Amino acid sequence: MKKNLYTIEQMLDNSLKCTGGESFKEVEQRMDEVIENIIKHNDGKKVVIVSHGASIKYYLKKYCNFTNNKLFYNKKELIIESPSVLRLKFNNFKLKEIKLI
């Protein structure tokens, strides 16, 4: 599996961005707002969200350990490739479970 070095660099430096692009922090904030809005308007429902792998990684980083350029949730590595399918379970806007499917 080839790692996207720029994605890794952005996860290590929250302010790094290309001209006209978004930084890690900006993507994380945008993902937070969108996912919170989706949860708010779909309480109790199952929904599907499709996004770029890097955006998902940036969103999940706050819930995971990021060690040696790898994401871990509950001591299990989350290998997010293109494509990947993850199940996220929320309760009262709080993430309760991440599972690779």
Kindly summarize this structure in a few lines.
This protein is of the alpha+beta class and 101 residues long. It has helices at residues 5-12, 24-41, 53-60, and strands at residues 65-67, 70-73, 76-78, 86-91, 94-100.
Describe the structure.
The chain has 3 helices and 5 strands. The protein has 101 residues and is α+β, with helices and mostly antiparallel strands. The chain has one domain. The chain has a 3-stranded antiparallel β-sheet with strand order 1-2-3, with no helix packed on it. A two-stranded antiparallel ribbon has the order 4-5. A hairpin with a 2-residue loop joins strand 2 and strand 3. Helix 2 packs across helix 3. The radius of gyration is 14 Å and the shape is globular. The mean pLDDT is 88.
Provide the fold topology:
Elements: H1 5-12, H2 24-41, H3 53-60, E1 65-67, E2 70-73, E3 76-78, E4 86-91, E5 94-100
Antiparallel strand pairs: 1-2, 2-3, 4-5
Helix pairs in contact: 2-3
